[in-house]
Amino acid sequence: MDFATLIGLVGAILLIASAVILGVSPDVFINPPSILIVVGGTMLVVLAKFSFSQFFSAFKVAARAFKFRLPDTRESIDELIEVANVARKQGVLGLEEREVGSPFLAQGIQMLVDGQNAETIKHLLSKERLLTLDHNRSGAKVFTAMADVAPAMGMIGTLIGLVQMLSNMEDPKSIGPAMAVALLTTLYGAMIATMIATPIADKLSLRMTEEARLQSLYIDALVAIKEGTNPRVIEQMLSSYLTPKEREKTSEAETAGA
Questions:
Q1: Residues with Cβ < 8 Å from 226, sequence gap 6 or more?
Q2: Structure confidence by residue, pLDDT tens digits, 61-119
Q3: How far apart (Å, rounded) are the C-alpha atoms in residues 157 and 36?
Q4: pLDDT (tens digit per residue) in 124-134
Q5: Confidence (pTM)
Q6: Spatial separation of the C-alpha atoms in residues 61 and 5, rounded to whole Å
Q7: CA distance from start to end of the chain
Q8: Which H or E element spans position 206?
Q9: How many helices (H) and strands (E) does the chain have?
Q10: What does the angle CA 229 – CA 232 – CA 236 come to, to the nearest 5 degrees?
Q11: Cβ neighbours of residue 8 under 8 Å, at least 6 residues apart?
């Protein structure tokens, strides 16, 4: 579970809800026509931008913003070095029964066992990486579109409310409540865009970048293993994927071990 996403979204919603409850009656902030215009209108306009499969799969992909954990880069490098050592000592057939945490890595190891050459392994895994990127990018685009459309639909709802209000100016007492209802659609649009759609889109983009980076690490390691590169050389090569802080920790650990 990604507690940063959960705490951020739930915390923002609770803050807004507290402000509503501590102010006037919460019933004032509930208006079915406004909800219909903003929520329904936003969904339909976004649907018009994408295909049915892209639109509905985006909500499945959105779960990755809340519950998705990639292996640690340092742990992944250690696992790959173990795989390289086994391949060097026992040959690639020694990897046949080996279990790994990543399906992508498991697919690459199976290619090694099947005797695929380095160029084929790199080509097929790079294609798989691009397909994963496209899938994740599509989900992020749907929520980005939602963040763009929701405020506009809120403004459209507000304009509709203002037109209805101005067409009934005979009763001055109705102007205040009518204005409040008109402004609710802008509020709904801003809340959907700022508190839901944009954070999910940004988190999906972050997940996409992190996963693509890890898959690139796997590809480099598997190609090097296939080419018979020394495991220590592979480790040095893969250390470029570590952050400067992680590299410093690794160097300190190696110094202490020596």
A1: 92, 112, 116, 117, 118, 121
A2: 888 777 777 788 888 999 999 999 999 988 888 888 888 878 899 999 999 999 899 99
A3: 10
A4: 999 999 988 88
A5: 0.79
A6: 14
A7: 38
A8: helix 198-226
A9: 11, 0
A10: 100
A11: 199
